[in-house]
Amino acid sequence: MTDVTATTPGASTVGAVTAATDDAMRALGRDLAALSRPGDLLILSGPLGAGKTTLTQGLAEGLGVRGPVTSPTFVISRIHPSLTGGPALVHVDAYRLGGADEIDDIDLDMTLPDSVTVVEWGEGVAEGLSDERLEIRIERHPDDTRTVHLRGVGARWTGTDLPGTGAGRGQRR
Ligand SMILES: Nc1ncnc2c1ncn2[C@@H]1O[C@H](COP(=O)(O)OP(=O)(O)OP(=O)(O)O)[C@@H](O)[C@H]1O
Ligand SMILES: [Mg+2]
Hints:
Elements: E1 6-7, E2 12-19, H1 22-35, E3 41-45, H2 52-63, E4 77-80, E5 88-93, H3 100-105, H4 108-111, E6 115-120, E7 133-140, E8 146-153, E9 171-172
Parallel strand pairs: 2-9, 3-6, 3-7, 5-6
Antiparallel strand pairs: 1-2, 2-8, 4-5, 7-8
Bound molecules: adenosine-5'-triphosphate and magnesium ion.
């Protein structure tokens, strides 16, 4: 278990988790699903092939929403309804969006309060959707392992048992 952890002063909570395989990445997604509530905004960043969609697949499994979660070429936003009476998963791929103006055009604020919203390539684009968000940055290493850096911004995430923080688990295998 690598536990690289700190709770920063102020309103952000940070942690980091090692995901050695794609299965570990999905397991981390399931862990995050267990913490998620309607209204949550998760912003995913990391290079091409980092594992953003893989993490979202685990999140979808954990939330019990209708799949599959994929990365279709021409779809920017897809709603996966819950199969279990919980929140829907709204999965956004902002890769082709020009910026914050264009993300406004897809009306995510309509679904945000009752859903869990995940925005791939959302860094620098999606922050305006909510003052409270979980920023997830995936770092890809040459040996194909990943370090997943988590930063919870706002009171929503204060005191949350985020994976990779002191009380959480630091590694997913
Ligand atoms: N440790 C790991 N964590 C996550 N994915 C891994 C890992 N090791 C290998 N992989 C593989 O890397 C690929 C990650 O692809 P994925 O589509 O999830 O990335 P992405 O960040 O969504 O890419 P894109 O930028 O194209 O949207 C998958 O083929 C997955 O099986
Ligand atoms: Mg993707």
